[in-house]
Amino acid sequence: METEKSMTISLSDTAAGERLDKALAAAVPTMSRERLKTLVQAGKLAGAGGVVWDPATKLKGGEVFTLTVPAPRPAGNAAQDIPLHIQFEDDHLLVVDKPAGLVVHPAAGNLDGTLVNALLHHCAGRLSGIGGVARPGIVHRIDKDTSGLLVVAKTDPAHEGLAAQFARHTVERRYTAVVGGVPVPPAGRIEGALARSTANRQKMAIVSAGRGKHAITHYRTVQAFRGAAQVECRLETGRTHQIRVHMASIGHALLGDAVYGRTPGRLAPVLKELAFARQALHAATLGFQHPVTKEILSFESKLPADMLALIGALAAEAE
Questions:
Q1: DSSP labels, 64-112
Q2: Is 0.90 surpassed by the pTM of this model?
Q3: Is the per-residue pLDDT at 31 higher than 90?
């Protein structure tokens, strides 16, 4: 049975001024930068002054560290034959069109029947493990009740390359949403740092910049109805519940979103008639540079039937 291993990493003087995780990745080419970052954050790296927790620590140069690498653990999630709509797949990654209602990764209350379980079956073990055993291959995620596009890494180099693009905010992500009210002005930029709400840990909230993660959403109105609108939201950053919180903050919560807004009374019968019981949000466009081949890739996902029906009903009511 394998046990954890320790390795000594000696950095050169030329590492002065560099980020710790970057220098470690150069010194340990057999491990990805994301994997090393995860180990640092788990308290597995020690220097002359003790445990180092921050991967962004600036180096003085010439440091010597001891890295403890845990023994590999098999993924605890069951592979399940759950149908997947795959738009693209090669040896390095795949792009999945997720239906509303499918949870991305196992968590309390959703231990199976998730996208991860489906991926474990489809890929038969060929998934990146950088994200940890609970989320193999998962580079980013969308909410259970949001539909649309996700990219999944099959290899560690692909995972690292994609994660770097998300960190640099160079991945194109456009969402279609249906909101209550008609935004004025019809297009704009919403900026507000996000963090867990202190009143309800299940919710995110706009907080002061020092407390939360920087977040920017660009929106534009595609078509206006009576008391509602179809909007396109482009993410400049990608934070948990970002579009839902940002649109609610300007008085235009997503229709069907029981967490961040209430459906305007006159529209409630429309949603009830359609049995529309989720936030009206769809990840419609995903674009990025392939982390291995360097090809520029762009994908589009058509609106699912429930959102098409909602938009159609609102359009008919407005006539």
A1: EEEEEEPPP----SPP------EEEE-SSEEEEEEPTT--SS-BTTBSS
A2: no
A3: no
Q: Distance between CA 314 and CA 300 in Å, rounded?
A: 24
Residue 107 CA to its chain's centroid (Å): 15
- CA–CA dist 78, 285 (Å, integer): 30
DSSP 257: -
Q: HEC profile for 183-220?
A: CCCCEEEEECEEEECCCCCCCEEEECCCCCECCEEEEE
Distance from the Cα of residue 31 to its chain's centroid: 23
- List pLDDT tens digits, range 67-105: 988 765 555 678 889 999 999 999 999 999 999 999 997
- Across 35-39, 155-159, 179-183, the highest mean pLDDT is recorded for 179-183
Average pLDDT score over the chain = 89
Q: Are strands 86-89 and 93-98 parallel, antiparallel or unpaired?
A: antiparallel
Residues written for the chain: 319
**Tally of CB atoms within 10 A around 194:** 22
Q: Would you give the DSSP letter of residue 283?
A: E
Enzyme catalytic residues: 143
